[in-house]
Amino acid sequence: MTQTLLDTVFKAVDDKRAEDIVVLNMEGISLLSDYFLICEGGSERQVQAIAREVKEQAEKAGYTVKRLEGFDTGRWVLVDMGDVVAHIFHKDERGYYNLERLWGDAPQKFIAVESND
Fold this sequence. Notes:
- Helix content is 36%, strand content 26%.
- It is α+β, with helices and mostly antiparallel strands.
- Helix 1 (2-15) runs antiparallel to helix 2.
- The longest helix is centred in the middle third of the chain and has 17 residues, at 44-60.
- It is globular and about 35 Å long.
């Protein structure tokens, strides 16, 4: 079930042209969630569009979005779906917070996306 949610979220951010998508396996590292998906957009509007797509696609697939934080500013939007938390950054903010380094002991998970082109 978690893998299906992760695939749904990954496809949603990819569909909205998110950049530098990283998935961290947080199992055994954080009690908050099993996976963090981290990505970025080039503008506040794109960050909001990515977050909106994640929320819509997760709910469409039957998952509950527990929290959506930071949407109004579009600088760092957190979409919490329990087992998967998406961190959608504005490209200017991502390096400052550097979650990949903060959670450096978490292994990265690689996801292949099927192309419909």
